[in-house]
Design brief:
By secondary structure, the chain is of the alpha+beta class. About 35% of the residues lie in helices and about 20% in strands. The strands form six sheets. Strands 2, 3, 4, 5, 10 and 16 form a six-stranded mixed sheet that branches.
């Protein structure tokens, strides 16, 4: 009997079709049960509600144990979009004090959340006031799919140290993408310690699993909370900042523009970090945060700009101790080396002016009188010394490297975000500007007195004061003194030694002491405390000169080193020295007692300095 080949082929076609359909069903079943979580989420959301438990954020204390930052309760409105049924939108909006248009915008924004699902809770509105929370809580039963999430916001005990403390803000899309810890509506540190120590302060989230009935009503914890995960609170931080000294410094700097940095030389701990103008950190808390932040960004004084670590200025005469140290180390001078001063440094048609004082003079009196000519002659003797260096460029690189070892030209590494490096040129910089081998010491002589291309932050200037106070070493400056159940990074506990022999610092200390006793820093002299200091009057092409001061006290066993920089305030002795000396006296004595010094204090409190500071790079 002949085979019917058409029938035979049809049989295979039908079998293949059946197998294909079966395969499709199997693949789809696998996809639904294993690969696709939507149905699982839907089933789970019918039976459970998973509620995030937010940890308490770590507290922040000052060095004396005073509580500076703690937490207050906050409330967020959360929604599970799939469960929003028959919502009386108008009543809901009236309850929250928003418009229908705002409601629609919030709902639209919810759908932009990464990993958005209508089955999972989404943040609708954050930071409800206690009044709005109470009003919503009374009506919550009317709004199925809506519940309240408890959170915390920061509270500040004192309106100080905004630049040090920082604040917290709602996370951005970039934050969420970088760190899976966050989801929309969460908060993260923004500026200051809150930002740089975010992972320590934020803690670890927990989760509460609630059981629903068939109508979506919460019936209690699933299996009595057996599978709940409790949050872990953030760790507390103790700052090195002295809150009273910080507040005192901010008061001295009110109505002025500039910075104060005070350091404990023996540890590198920062006692005060003042940036002026400043602001009350509580302005950036709550529903008004956005409005206040915009106001601060528009403020011409730029209070959000931390001048203590971000602003770079010509250091002026506070730079001269570095020059004395380098010249001693390189054998260019001895403490007894004399240089002339004919009303300044005069070579041919070049003149760098100086004020009247005895001349010629050696190193120590040159610091006391802040002689410009002395350091110009010293720099010229070094850079043009062909018996020691093959070229000006070689000598200059050695000069620059000594400065780098002292903390200039690069970031010091403070434990706060945003630190700037200042600026030190290298020989390639001048080669490019003037041409290779076409520049000499006289071409760049202004750098000898902290002018020209030299730029430094107030932090770097204060660190130099701490280095001199220690007679040749410093610790990386830092604002965090201790972390709960942890230790601070060893970066901040290891001594750093500049490339200057310790024996050379004694002459610099003596010169700075003479400056206070009978030189340019006489206002800093205290009867019971041996103060060492150095003035700085930095030229400003955009307006009045800047007033600066660098010093430490006591001379032996120093407890505080300080730098003060007041923009457009004229001579260093006019504002820098009085403010610096008052800060040291207040820290060491706890108060200002001498009547003459009280008058000086009131004058600094009440004085106002305005002007054009110029561009800060």
């Amino acid at each position: 009997m002949r085979k019917d080949y058409n029938l035979e082929k049809r049989k295979y076609v039908i079998a293949a079709a059946v197998l294909t359909v079966v395969a499709i069903f199997i693949i789809r079943l696998f996809s639904l049960q294993v690969g696709d979580n939507d149905y699982k989420r839907y089933a789970d959301s019918n039976a459970f509600q998973r509620k995030v438990l937010y940890p308490s954020r770590g507290f922040i204390y000052d060095r004396n144990g005073e509580l500076l930052v703690y937490n207050q309760p906050a409330y967020d409105v959360m929604m599970i979009p799939r469960e929003i049924r028959n919502l009386d939108t108008l009543d809901f909006c009236n309850t929250l004090g928003i418009t229908v248009e705002q409601f629609e915008r919030y709902m639209k924004d919810c759908r932009k959340n990464p990993g958005y699902s209508s089955y999972t809770p989404q943040a609708f509105m954050t930071q409800l006031s206690a009044r709005d929370y109470g009003r919503l809580q009374e009506k919550l039963y009317r709004y199925p799919g809506v519940y309240i999430q408890n959170r915390v916001l920061r509270e500040y005990n004192r309106p100080i140290a905004a630049n040090v403390l920082g604040n917290i803000r709602e996370v951005s899309q970039n934050d969420i993408e970088r760190d899976e810890y966050y989801r929309r509506g969460d908060y993260t540190g923004d500026l200051g310690v809150e930002k740089s120590f975010e992972h320590i302060l934020r803690g670890v989230k927990g989760e509460e699993i609630l059981l629903r009935d068939a109508y979506g009503r919460i019936k209690g914890k699933y299996e009595d909370g057996r599978y709940d995960v409790q949050p872990i609170s953030g760790r507390n931080i103790t700052l090195s900042i002295d809150a009273d000294l910080q507040a005192y410094g901010e008061k001295l700097m009110q109505n002025k523009t500039g910075a104060i940095v005070a350091i404990e030389p023996s540890t590198g701990e920062i006692l005060a970090l003042v940036s002026s103008p400043t602001y009350d950190p509580s302005m950036l808390v709550g529903r008004e945060r956005g409005k206040n932040y915009a106001q601060l960004t528009r403020d011409p004084g730029n209070p959000l700009y931390d001048r203590a670590i971000m602003a770079v200025y010509p250091p002026g005469s506070t730079f001269k101790p570095t020059q004395g140290l380098i010249f001693l180390e390189e054998g260019i001078i001895t403490p007894d080396t004399h240089f002339p001063c004919a009303g300044g440094f005069v070579v041919g048609g070049l003149r760098v002016g100086c004020h009247a004082h005895a001349a010629p003079l050696p190193l120590i009196p040159s610091l006391a009188t802040s002689c410009n000519a002395y350091y110009c002659y010293g720099l010229r003797a070094m850079l043009d010394k062909r018996t020691k260096y093959e070229s000006t460029a070689e000598a200059f690189e050695i000069w620059k490297n000594h400065l780098v070892s002292m903390g200039y030209g690069y970031k010091l590494g403070i434990d706060l975000p945003g630190e700037k490096r200042g600026f030190l040129p290298n020989s390639a910089y001048y080669d490019k500007f003037y041409g290779k081998n076409r520049w000499r010491a006289l071409t760049i002589i202004s750098i000898a007195i902290g002018q020209g291309e030299i730029l430094a932050t107030p932090l770097q200037i204060a660190n130099l004061a701490a280095t001199i106070a220690n007679r040749g070493y410093f610790y990386t400056p830092h604002v965090v003194k201790a972390i709960q159940d942890s230790i601070i990074d060893s970066t901040y506990t290891v001594r750093r030694y500049p490339t200057i022999d310790a024996e050379h610092y004694d002459a610099i200390v003596e010169g700075m002491r003479m400056a206070v006793l009978n030189g340019t820093c006489r206002t800093a002299n205290l009867d019971s405390i041996a103060v060492c200091g150095k003035t700085g009057t930095a030229q400003n092409p955009h307006g009045r000169d800047h007033s600066a001061f660098m010093g430490f006290a006591p001379m032996d066993n120093p407890q505080i080193a300080i730098a003060v920089y007041v923009e457009n305030a004229g001579f260093g002795a006019t504002y820098g020295v009085p403010i610096g000396s008052l800060m040291m006296e207040y820290y060491l004595k706890g108060e200002i007692t001498d009547p003459a010094r009280k008058d000086l204090e009131q004058r600094m409190f009440n004085s106002k300095v305005v002007g054009n500071s110029g561009k800060k790079r």
